[in-house]
């Protein structure tokens, strides 16, 4: 892997760590296996399986950087499973492939100074660069079969979500809100279009 590309990914991510490097390697491999280039618009989709509050959620930034499937484009979809895994989908070819972290090098990663300090609660940006890069190089230089479980290229039945355009103004707080998140409250002549926070609906209803 070109070190310039790796360094650009670290700059995007914010610090140097093995999980983001793993995501980058896996993302580039997925593109190669599907025979596609990095997404510029909505050519590809990623279903990312890292969960919320995931200690190695950095993996997702590596995948986003490699594939171009970002949250902002609406082409990265969260499927929280707590796994360093994702599926790359090409809707045009109707093909997809799933990749997952292989546990073969897990013990070596856990034995590293970097991970011992992370387990002690030290933030990654406070760990010496040489200790972070020791694990990064382990992930990047190990044989691919020891690092990543590579699924077969399969037929995909994924239907890209429909993009809902436009904003409404919440009639309580006055803030603009995407139409898909507008909620209706009141009855009769007292109906209001409001945002989720002003609606009084139970937590989680917006999902």
Descriptive notes:
The chain is α+β, with helices and mostly antiparallel strands and 207 residues long. It has two domains: 3-155, 60s Ribosomal Protein L30, Chain: A (2-Layer Sandwich), CATH 3.30.1330; 167-199. 34% of the residues lie in helices and 18% in strands. The chain contains eight helices and ten strands. The protein has helices spanning 3-13, 18-34, 58-67, 106-110, 113-119, 129-141, 144-147, 196-199; strands at residues 45-48, 76-78, 85-90, 95-101, 148-150, 154-155, 167-169, 176-178, 183-185, 192-194. The strands form three sheets. Strands 1, 2, 3, 4, 5 and 6 form a six-stranded mixed sheet that branches. Strand 7 and strand 8 form a beta hairpin. The longest helix has 17 residues, at 18-34. The protein is globular, with a radius of gyration of 20 Å. It starts with a helix and ends in an 8-residue tail after the last helix.
List the SSEs and their pairings.
Layout: H1 3-13, H2 18-34, E1 45-48, H3 58-67, E2 76-78, E3 85-90, E4 95-101, H4 106-110, H5 113-119, H6 129-141, H7 144-147, E5 148-150, E6 154-155, E7 167-169, E8 176-178, E9 183-185, E10 192-194, H8 196-199
Parallel strand pairs: 1-2
Antiparallel strand pairs: 1-3, 3-4, 4-5, 4-6, 7-8, 9-10
Helix pairs in contact: 1-3, 2-3, 2-6
């Amino acid at each position: 892997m070109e070190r310039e590309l790796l360094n650009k990914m670290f700059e995007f991510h914010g610090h140097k760590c093995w999980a983001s490097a793993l995501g980058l390697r896996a993302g580039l491999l997925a593109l190669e296996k599907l025979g596609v280039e990095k997404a510029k618009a909505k050519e590809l989709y990623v279903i990312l399986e890292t969960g919320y509050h995931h200690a190695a959620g950095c993996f997702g930034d590596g995948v986003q950087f490699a594939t171009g499937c970002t949250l902002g484009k609406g082409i990265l979809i969260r499927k929280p499973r707590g796994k360093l895994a994702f599926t790359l989908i090409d809707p045009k070819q109707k093909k997809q492939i799933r990749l997952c972290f292989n546990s073969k090098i897990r013990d070596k990663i856990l034995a590293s100074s970097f991970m011992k300090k992370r387990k002690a609660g030290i933030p990654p940006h406070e760990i010496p660069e040489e200790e972070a890069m020791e694990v990064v190089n382990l992930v990047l230089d190990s044989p691919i079969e020891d690092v990543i479980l590579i699924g077969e290229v399969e037929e995909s039945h994924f239907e890209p979500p429909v993009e809902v355009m436009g904003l409404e103004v919440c009639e309580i707080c006055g803030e603009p809100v995407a139409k898909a998140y507008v909620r209706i409250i009141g009855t009769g002549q007292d109906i209001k279009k409001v945002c989720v926070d002003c609606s009084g609906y139970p937590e989680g209803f917006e999902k």
